[in-house]
Design a protein that fits this description.
CATH architecture of the domain at 19-113: Sandwich
Strand content: 35-45%
Number of helices: 2
Number of strands: 9
Radius of gyration: 20 Å
CATH topology of the domain at 19-113: Immunoglobulin-like
Shape: globular
Mean pLDDT: 79
Structural class: mainly beta
């Protein structure tokens, strides 16, 4: 009985080691673009992850490693969109709205910056390197920095 009580107090602590990138893909009139292919490529490792937008045009990469990313959005009948300069930090949730233009020929729209959007709950989370390095971690003291 005593061991069970002690074990319940010793839950392991989890640490956040990833971030997320999500958004909605719409056409020029604001209509959802369902079934678009969204590719997130880590420019440091060349790791690529692919998602399809749902019926509301929403995509989500919920557990991406921190790093520099490039997003590519493709859908037949639309010009592809290349989103550059997506810098993801640990614990960060980036929301990127994507507007696709109707096109009968093969085109690519390159976006080098993205507007900062709030999460649905109104909170924007961003940690810089100094914040992360000065955050205490189990076994590390502020004086050790």
């Amino acid at each position: 009985m005593f061991l069970l009580a002690c074990a319940s107090r010793a839950w392991p602590q989890s640490q956040i080691t990833s971030g997320s990138v999500q958004g909605d893909v719409v056409d020029e009139r604001g209509g959802s673009v369902a079934g678009a292919t969204v590719e997130a490529k880590n420019l440091d490792t060349n790791f690529t992850q692919t998602e399809k937008t749902n019926s509301d045009g929403h995509f989500a990469f919920l557990r991406l490693a921190p790093g520099r990313y490039q997003l590519t959005v493709n859908k037949s009948g639309f010009a592809s969109v290349l989103q550059q300069n997506v810098n993801l930090n640990v614990g960060q949730a980036i929301i990127i709205p994507v507007v696709m233009k109707v096109s009968s020929v093969s085109q690519q729209i390159v976006v080098t910056m993205y507007p900062l959007s709030k999460q649905p709950n109104g909170i924007v989370v961003h940690f810089d390197g100094l914040t992360i390095s000065s955050t205490p971690v189990l076994g590390r003291k502020f004086e050790d920095s």
